[in-house]
Structure to design on (479 residues):
């Protein structure tokens, strides 16, 4: 059994700057990466994120600003990297689709598919949504408009393109899903994919004659690769262009939003089948959030940026609030008002207050504590790891905050209320009690590590002993 994990996020379009939606997926991947690295060792986990830089959408956005597409991408990429740094997201590699080494792998795979007979030339006629970067079928249109981009009129396109025999390949895709050769999670997403596959699938155009900003088709340089084909290949190309990462393919987990499920669950496996490359093991599509019941959008002016969240709640506050807001596979609604409330309840009053309370008790007791305490904690609590193994972030966090397990945060709070250690006259009993609290705090901190890395570290340092002292509040209350 190989002991390795490879996890990816979607690569984000550079026509937009990072927002809370991008942060949501990337944070989830960071949390899982930290969890796996602690379990398997750093060298056995590979976390990839990056940017999707080709295609019409980016080309048009660049033109609007008066830049070349590459200059434009170069100016946006650092904004993503800074946002991830701000949120303490530690990816192992940041891939850009304009990296010539990636482009080479794209051409190599396309040539391979062409040679194996899965590509042919044909004419495409239809409506294209630049916002989605895809052709829309009649059933997808609502009043002639794209439901996801009602402000961008779909454009009629008719051109000679290269087509992928998706109709044929999709039968093999369906077979593999049914045999469980790769998983689509949550289960309801797999049902969606299977039901659409069973209705039959048409071949798709995989090149563009009118888009110059893309990877040239190796056998016909007048055309460029369709941006989605180029983009999907990043997951594989990364393992080829970075030294020593070859062994990480196939990917263990692609985290994506539900908006791009079809591309990942069907088109990506089809491309891999056509090139005889192993398929990823799992594709997990999480839900979408709205803000105060509305879609997050520039035109509505309700976009929340990572910086805004960090300024208001601190790094770990932002991490906690985004991932605890609603269950990872479902849709949910967020708002700053809800975040404020949850921050005060769970972090300022919950975790922060508990830590301050125990530290204060230790400080006034004048006792010495075992300084090797944290070394003994080598594994996550079962409840936490079993939830994380299922990508259930809210479940894992709720577990740490529970009141009915003998180390949960609320359990400890309650225990202290009942013990009333400040009334204890018996020094030996007090020492026993405080040592128990300290041990529990260390356990809580250990289990919080993947989620709140800075806070966990602060707590570990503070409670290392032999003298435990009060410190600044971890999460100052928001008024
Ligand atoms: N470039 C493509 C992906 C190519 S992957 C080979 C793309 N980029 S994107 O910039 O539009 O990012 C889409 C992703 O951002 C979603 O799949 C999801 O991960 C994240 N989200 C964007 N808005 C979101 C919400 N409102 N809620 C949750 N996640 C959101 O698609």
């Amino acid at each position: 059994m190989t002991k390795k994990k490879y996890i990816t996020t979607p690569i984000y379009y550079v026509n937009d700057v990072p927002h809370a939606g991008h942060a949501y997926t990337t944070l989830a991947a960071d949390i899982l990466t930290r969890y796996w690295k602690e379990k398997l060792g750093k060298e056995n986990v590979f976390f990839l994120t990056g940017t999707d830089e080709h295609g019409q959408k980016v080309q048009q956005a660049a033109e609007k600003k008066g830049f070349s597409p590459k200059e434009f991408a170069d100016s946006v990429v650092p904004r993503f990297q800074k946002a991830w740094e701000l949120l303490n997201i530690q990816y192992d590699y940041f891939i850009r689709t304009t990296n010539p080494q990636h482009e080479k792998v794209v051409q190599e795979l396309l040539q391979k598919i062409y040679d194996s007979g899965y590509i042919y030339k044909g004419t495409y006629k239809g409506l294209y949504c630049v916002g989605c970067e895809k052709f829309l079928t009649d059933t997808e249109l609502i009043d002639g408009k794209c439901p996801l981009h009602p402000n961008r009129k779909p454009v009629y396109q008719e051109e000679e393109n290269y087509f992928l025999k998706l109709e044929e390949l999709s039968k093999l895709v369906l077979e593999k899903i049914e045999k469980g050769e790769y998983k689509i999670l949550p289960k309801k997403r797999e049902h969606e994919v299977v039901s659409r596959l069973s209705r039959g699938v048409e071949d798709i155009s995989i090149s563009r004659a009118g888009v110059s900003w893309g990877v040239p088709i190796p056998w016909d340089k007048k055309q460029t690769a369709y941006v989605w084909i180029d983009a999907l290949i990043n997951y594989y190309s990364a393992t080829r262009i970075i030294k020593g990462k070859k062994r990480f393919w196939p990917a263990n987990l692609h985290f994506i939003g539900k908006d791009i499920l079809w591309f990942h669950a069907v088109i990506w496996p089809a491309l891999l089948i056509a090139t005889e490359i192993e398929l990823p093991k799992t594709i997990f599509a999480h839900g979408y959030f709205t803000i105060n019941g509305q879609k997050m959008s520039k035109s509505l002016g309700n976009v929340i940026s990572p910086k805004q969240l960090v300024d208001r709640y601190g790094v770990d506050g932002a991490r906690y609030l985004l991932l605890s807001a609603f269950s990872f596979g479902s849709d949910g609604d967020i708002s700053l008002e809800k975040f404020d409330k949850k921050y005060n309840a769970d972090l300022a009053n919950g975790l922060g207050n508990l830590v301050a309370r125990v530290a204060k008790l230790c400080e006034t007791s004048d006792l010495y504590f075992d300084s090797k305490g944290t070394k003994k904690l080598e594994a996550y609590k079962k409840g936490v790891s079993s939830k994380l193994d299922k990508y259930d972030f809210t479940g894992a966090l709720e577990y740490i905050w529970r009141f009915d397990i003998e180390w949960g945060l609320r359990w400890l709070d309650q225990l202290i209320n009942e013990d009333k250690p400040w009334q204890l006259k018996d020094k030996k009993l007090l020492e026993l009690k405080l040592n128990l609290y300290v041990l529990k705090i260390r356990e809580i901190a250990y289990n919080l590590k993947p989620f709140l890395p800075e806070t966990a570290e602060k707590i570990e340092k503070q409670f290392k002993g032999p003298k435990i002292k009060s410190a600044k509040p971890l999460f100052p209350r928001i008024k």
